[in-house]
Specification:
Elements: H1 3-12, E1 23-27, H2 53-65, E2 70-74, H3 84-93, E3 97-102, H4 115-121, E4 125-129, H5 135-142, H6 146-159, E5 170-174, H7 185-196, E6 205-208, H8 215-224, H9 227-236, E7 251-254, E8 260-261, H10 264-269, H11 286-290, H12 301-304
Parallel strand pairs: 1-2, 1-7, 2-3, 3-4, 4-5, 5-6
Antiparallel strand pairs: 7-8
Length: about 300
């Protein structure tokens, strides 16, 4: 057993296992209009990875044919995929709840101006990245002018009822700006609401995620000599109470090429689902995947540190 597996086994006398499939996650592209410093998929404008229409149709059929409650669409900037609107519409027609991840600034790219209205029309749950509540903090991580665009985007979503109406959920995501763990999620949420209220912005919840030591953030840790220190801090902050709520226990993540993973992070490491399960969407086996062993490694300490990532 690796360190993380051993730690889990010590806590629950068993390995980490799936507890059903509530959500199907599609990573439909790595292309993005931004190149954020903490991005674990190393997304950017020049990325060529796009999910094919054939894989999309297969995934939509899987969603329709099994008791999976929600579809989670991510990227890159998923809105840049030419079939993004089609995916949302088809999932909603199948009666599934749709969640999408957005960087907010995408709304200002050519052809993306109507995306907020589209979200509202289809009652898409929006999870928006806003790594800090100050202009300096956001622009430092994501580039000059990003905070201003994000504020305008959030105002637009609020105007459409997001953060105000029950069926138009708007959540923000906080990421630390360095090699340290986030503080209390509740305290940060209160601070975000206080700092954003002068702009007239409201939202439902704040999610705090520690930065995953993958992609650009790992390069930063190595470059600054902080990798071992950061990993040690994650291990020291291990919280056994987070194990029951880990996302990997309730989702199946589909890579842009149709390969199946326990989570988006495992995708970047090439760690496919357990060998006892088919590892491609075309061979989807609901029964096997719903009770599978979760493939873990020491990066999983990120999701169990402190309050965890649920």
């Amino acid at each position: 057993m690796i360190g993380f597996e051993r730690k889990v086994f010590e806590v629950q006398n068993d390995l980490l296992r799936a507890d059903g499939i509530k959500l199907l996650q599609l990573n439909i592209c790595y292309k993005c209009n931004m190149a954020c410093k903490h991005c674990h998929v190393e997304a950017g404008p020049g990325k060529p990875e796009f999910m094919s229409r054939d894989i999309i149709e297969t995934a939509l059929e899987v969603l329709k044919s099994h008791p999976i409650e929600s579809l989670d669409i991510t990227g890159g900037a998923p809105e840049l995929h030419p079939d993004f609107l089609y995916i949302v519409k088809q999932a909603r027609q199948s009666g599934r709840h749709v969640v999408t991840r957005t960087n907010l600034t995408i709304f200002f790219e050519d052809g993306m101006e109507n995306i907020p209205d589209f979200y509202a029309e289809n009652e898409v749950e929006v999870v928006a990245s806003l790594p800090h509540y100050t202009e300096t903090g956001v622009d430092r991580v994501r580039g000059e002018g990003t905070f201003s665009k994000s504020i305008k985007a959030l105002k637009k979503l609020n105007m459409l009822g997001y953060g105000k109406e029950e069926k138009k959920q708007l959540h923000l995501v906080y990421n630390p700006m360095g090699a340290f763990l986030p503080s209390s999620q509740k305290e940060l949420e209160n601070q975000y609401k206080k700092e954003l209220s002068p702009y007239g912005i409201v939202f439902n919840r704040l999610y705090t995620f520690a930065n995953m030591p993958l992609g650009r953030f790992r390069e930063f840790l190595v470059r600054t000599g902080n990798l071992n220190t950061y990993m040690n801090s994650l291990q020291a902050a291990f919280n056994p109470c987070t194990l029951t709520g880990l996302m990997c226990r309730y989702i199946v993540s589909v890579g842009w090429d149709g390969t199946l993973y326990d989570c988006d992070f495992n995708q970047m490491l090439g760690l496919t689902v357990d060998i006892e399960c088919p590892d491609h969407i075309k061979d989807f086996d609901y029964a096997a995947l719903a009770r599978r062993k979760i493939i873990t490694d020491n990066h999983c300490y990120v999701c169990t540190a402190g309050q965890g990532s649920t």
